[in-house]
């Protein structure tokens, strides 16, 4: 860890400022967690880049009780790698390293009230489990950051101590609710205090003069997992949820839930969950004993993982079944919606498009042609003598003629064309990118098919029909909108009807 100058470092933090009222209350609070003289001296020593281990040891030795606890920590199985014991503060500091020494000094200094109630015990218990989990993760993923991650995880909840000091009733009411998850506690803090304890903890640590990098890590410790670029931040952010899982009343269920939540967001090298939990299990009694804390519940780690995996499988199976049922229901709803939309566009008798859909599509196509300098043609068709046919053979026969004509028309249009029933015995076809002559050839195919194909059989005799067809092409007139184009085709159709029916007329030709 780089050297620092022991002073108020809050102005160096690259984090949002605390709400004004909260910072004012923190500044004025006489009960705010503070550091004893020896901890301040350690921070002062850290302010000099060329400080030696003797400098750290000399500062720490001013407090004999702290010195003994530091030596005890260095000799514990948590840190001891050799057979030899450390007997001096210098040897202990050398074995622990600066980060862990700083964490131990700060933690031992802050945890002075051994008779604190269950709430403070629970806060520190979570911090210790978090620190162990963070260190185990870092040893797997970023060994060079393990000591720093341990320190940050151990101090990540110190903001809760500050909020308890400033707002004892509000904070106690919030933290005493054991049914709340840590994420729910953070949301509750935002509602009550305008920010969460990670921001307060970062401010408090910087106020003491800890390195800015450590204060900023505390601030980032509760951010969303998966948004970090640095591996050490992943270890730090995972440590809290792992601690919550360990301390849960139903750890296997909590672990299964955590694994399910993490699976889509955590992208790291493989993490040995078994090794991590074993490390927490073996090292937890040592640290809690040093801090004189009640040891949190122990677990059969292998059984815990197996139970969690079984629960995760069951939850995944149930969830997949629910998702499949929901997806099937959604597919059915979408299918019904598609069918309803399709039905709303169709003429029920002929199966062709209805007038509303024809006019809507013509309007869109007209705008497209105007913008992109394309053309199109419309073909307006009227069945000749249809009223007489109805009067002579009945409306049922007339309906069958319309239905059969619709099928004929649908079989003749190309992909991209749109044919529909415009109303009564009138039909309209929209031909994109088609000239008047091309539309005329299409109209001739319709007339030829009708001359060859009876539309109905009446009393055993074939019933043929003829049509009057009018064509208008966008390129042949100064049309202002699609409605004018239809009117032009309609006029051309009526020219044929007035002149004997059964023919084709091109507007403007």
UniProtKB/TrEMBL annotation:
Per the database record, which ranges form the HDOD domain? Answer: 32-224
Catalyzed chemical reaction(s): 2 GTP = 3',3'-c-di-GMP + 2 diphosphate
Q: Which SUPFAM superfamilies match?
A: HD-domain/PDEase-like, Nucleotide cyclase
Q: Which InterPro entries match?
A: Diguanylate_Cyclase, GGDEF_dom, HDOD, Nucleotide_cyclase, Rev_trsase/Diguanyl_cyclase
| Sorted UniProt keywords | Coiled coil
Q: Which cofactor does it need?
A: Mg(2+)
Q: What is its EC number?
A: 2.7.7.65
Gene3D superfamilies the UniProt entry points to: 3.30.70.270, Hypothetical protein af1432
Which positions, given as ranges, span the membrane? none
| Domain called GGDEF: residue spans | 374-509
Top enzyme category: transferase
Q: Which domain of life is it from?
A: Bacteria
**A molecular function (GO) term:** diguanylate cyclase activity
Which Pfam families does its entry note? GGDEF, HDOD
- Per its UniProt record, what NCBIfam families does this chain match? GGDEF
What is the designated name of this protein? diguanylate cyclase
Species the sequence originates in: Vreelandella subterranea
